[in-house]
Structures are given as structure tokens and as C-alpha cells.
């Protein structure tokens, strides 16, 4: 990209950047639903153990005649990258969050009196700190105990969606801070409320629980029942929903109608839709593989799904 193009990007109004984020999440959510509810496309949702099982089943029918659409879907299904590339999500997320943090700290200045936008800035700053914590933890998990089998693959479309998800939430955080006058962290701390503390505590609890669940999955013998999961089949996904629910709640409690809040809500909606679809497939896999040995009643949301 030329320097003039970079300058034009930097001069885009904040509302245009917000629209990019919103459009991205709406597009990705719609695509997940289309792939889920249009039966010929269902295979595009699968990866890991679910993908391996489907690949084995389809090989038995390899000689059957297929339509052009089926062959096209098969071609897309077979367009894969190593599952280890999952780490790219979190490394890029960490880099985005760290750069935003550096820029924001550099621009921050002491204030002499409280301005009306300082409370909004405080909420956006608190959200960014949570995103930075999430990106740091997930990056460390990827390079410490997460195991990626050498032959494990994910669909290329999953890889693109994952990269886009973290780029979009980082962009939303950047614009939400950029449009306000930065203040020093010592001033931010003075604006913290009891609700902020409670929500941040929920975030930390969900983060710790997700860490425990990821560690449990990483130390299991491959494709065995996750015996420490007592309530839902994919509690690490439940934790992810809680984390982004907290992010949306902190943003919305200050300004429900702001572009940033709408985008964090769209981020949460995508997270719920995407992980619910994935968790249902995982739940069905456990039922088929382990039969009566698999006792859990819920896939991801107790009492709902």
C-alpha cells in the first residue's frame, strides 16, 4: 500500500471505521447462519475431530455421483491450513492490543477537571485492558500447553474469519479510544465504579475458568471424554461468551446508542452464534462417539442449549 493510501486510511472518519467493524460482524454472523441452515454447506462448519469424522464418512461414498455444487463445496471443504495456525489469531490480537496501548499511553495527558467524555473514555480504556489481558493469556496458552497435531487441519475460511474477528474487535477498541481525549491511568482509576469492579471480577473469573478448561483439553488423551466438564460440553466456549458479554455490558452501561457499543454488541452476537453452532456439533460428536458414557445434558448454555 502506498504512503498516500496509508494517509487516506488514517484520515477516514471514525464513523466509517465503525461501519467497517459493524459490517464485518454482520457479514460473518450471516454467513455462519447460512452455512448452518443450508444443508449442503454444513460440512464447511467442521474442523478438528468433527472434520476428521466427516472426512472418514465421505470417503466411503467417494464413488457416488455428485452435483457440480457438491463438488464445489468439497473443494472448499478441502481448502485447509494447519490447525496450529490458530496461534496466529492470538499473536495478531496481542500485537494489535499492545500497539493501541502504546499509542494511547503516549497521547494521554493529566486533566485539571473532569470532562463529560472522561467517563466514556474510562469504560473504553477498561475494555481495552480486558482485551489486552485476553490476547496475552491466549497467546501464552498457545505457546505453552496447547497441542496441535501435525496432521490436524482447519478450513481456510475458518482461519480468515478468526483473523477478521480479532482485527475487528481491536479496530473498534482503537477507534473508541481515538475519538476521545486520552487521560492518564491515574485519572481513569478515580472514575472506576462498583459496577466496573463487579464486571471486571466476572471477566477475570471467566478468564481463569477458560484457562483451566483449555488446560484440561490440552492434557486429555486425544478424543476422549473431557471428564472434568460437569455442566456443559464446551465450557471454554461458555467462558468466551461471558467474556464478551462483560465487554458489551461495560460499553453499553455508559452509552447504549454509541457506535462502539453497537459494535461490541455485534461482536457478542457473532460470538454467541458461532460458538453455539460449533458447540452443538461437538456435543453431537461426543454423543455419537461415547454413547451412554457421555452424560452431559447441555452443549454450551445451561438450560438453553
From TrEMBL:
InterPro entries: 3-oxo-5_a-steroid_4-DH_C, Dfg10/SRD5A3
Membrane-spanning parts: 15-35, 156-176, 188-208
One cellular-component annotation, GO: endoplasmic reticulum membrane
Keyword Oxidoreductase: yes
Localization per Swiss-Prot or TrEMBL: Endomembrane system; Endoplasmic reticulum membrane
Keyword Endoplasmic reticulum assigned: yes
Leading EC class: oxidoreductase
GO terms assigned for molecular function: 3-oxo-5-alpha-steroid 4-dehydrogenase activity; polyprenal reductase activity; polyprenol reductase activity
Any one biological process term the GO annotation gives: polyprenol catabolic process
Catalytic activity: a di-trans,poly-cis-dolichal + NADP(+) = a di-trans,poly-cis-polyprenal + NADPH + H(+)
Primary localisation category: membrane
UniProt domain 3-oxo-5-alpha-steroid 4-dehydrogenase C-terminal: residue ranges: 194-304
Membrane topology, record value: Multi-pass membrane protein
Enzyme nomenclature, EC number: 1.3.1.94
Pathways involved: Protein modification; protein glycosylation
PANTHER family reported in the protein's UniProt record: DFG10 PROTEIN, POLYPRENOL REDUCTASE
Protein's job: Plays a key role in early steps of protein N-linked glycosylation by being involved in the conversion of polyprenol into dolichol. Acts as a polyprenal reductase that mediates the reduction of polyprenal into dolichal in a NADP-dependent mechanism. Dolichols are required for the synthesis of dolichol-linked monosaccharides and the oligosaccharide precursor used for N-glycosylation.
Family classification: Belongs to the steroid 5-alpha reductase family. Polyprenal reductase subfamily.
Name of the protein in its database record: Polyprenal reductase
Organism: Scheffersomyces stipitis (strain ATCC 58785 / CBS 6054 / NBRC 10063 / NRRL Y-11545)
Gene name per UniProt: DFG10
